[in-house]
Amino acid sequence: MIEFDRFGDRPPSILIVDDSRVVREALRITLAKSGLPRTTAVETAARGLEVLNAPGADARFDLVITDLDMPDMSGIELCRQIKGRKKLAHIPVIFLTAKDDDSDLEAAFDAGASDFLRKPPKPVEMLARIRSALTLKYEMDRRLQRERELVKATEKLEDANRKLLNLSMIDGLTGVANRRMFDDTLEREWRRSQRAGESLALAMMDIDFFKRYNDGYGHQQGDLCLKAVAAAIEMSTVRPGDVVARYGGEEFAVLLPETELDGVAAVAERIRTNVETLRMRHKDSDVGDYITVSTGIAACVPAEGTGPQVIVAAADRAMYLAKENGRNRVEAAGD
Questions:
Q1: Any idea what DSSP says for residue 11?
Q2: Rounded Cα gap, residues 243 and 255, in angstroms
């Protein structure tokens, strides 16, 4: 007895297509006695296609045994249609034929047949060929499953790597870009603006008397202050290409591509106002009763042979000028 219990987690399911009721019944009985009870028998190729195209049939059937010659559609055409449909192409097809014509057999194999049997088939030979076809399908199914699992694992790994990269570019406390991301973006935008001959703008701001705030209210409240200020800065920018970053400690930077000095001045003033509107009390500030920021701005069309440190240095000088001139204000480079 040829055993069929090793093919996956269920007995194989076979579709029989033959216009002879006698042949269909004989095959069904022989297969059932040999441990293959899950058979579906139909009398036409058209009906066979209907069964195979039913929802879930591509996963249900493991083998098609079909007559070569049938009145409505030949077994060869049935095989072509099975192999021509992506969801069905993995199902092996074994032909039954009473003919002894090599040209028919050649056409059958050209259509994608796995094997053929002469009518009437000898049970031992038929079962051996069925077993061979099922073994091949089972191994192919396992390989495809491994490939799907590998693709899924690769996608998960790529997603994890993307998330890790994003995390490496984000400041863990405030949620805005970190210094690494700022430096990378500034370098890239500087070169792009240089090529395009476009103005690039930068605003750098520092929370006024933040050390006193930390000392007076505690580091936990200091962290809440940094988060609130970062959110106020982000709220003040409107374009997707604008980059808000925590530059270091209580210092933030806003990079504005394709922006001239008047544009960055408007953004910086909006930031100053939004931070002041937070109304976060600061009892140790020499500026007022609430948290404020001092901001320096700069804008330029990057000249050939220069690097982004040019605009950083200019904005930084302007920021310190804002502090010297009373804080809670915006100063421009060169003013």
A1: -
A2: 5
In one-letter notation, the amino acid at residue 123 is P
Separation of alpha carbons 131 and 3, rounded Å: 8
Q: Say whether 192 sits in a helix, a strand or coil.
A: helix
Ordered DSSP codes for 110-129 = HTT--EEEESSPPHHHHHHH
Least Cα distance to 303 among 190, 134, 219, 210 occurs for 190
- The sign of the CA dihedral 269, 275, 277, 281 is negative
Please check the confidence at residue 52 and state whether its pLDDT lies above 80. yes
Helix 21-33 and helix 123-168, axial crossing angle in degrees, nearest 10: 70
User: Which residues, other chains included, contact 195 with Cβ-Cβ below 8 Å and sequence gap of 6+?
Assistant: none
Residue 1 is predicted with a pLDDT of 45
Q: What residues act catalytically?
A: 250
pLDDT at site 71: 83
Across 130-264, the runs of DSSP E, i.e. the strands, are 200-207, 243-248, 251-257
Say what the pTM is: 0.57
Helix (H, G, I), strand (E, B) or coil at 295: strand
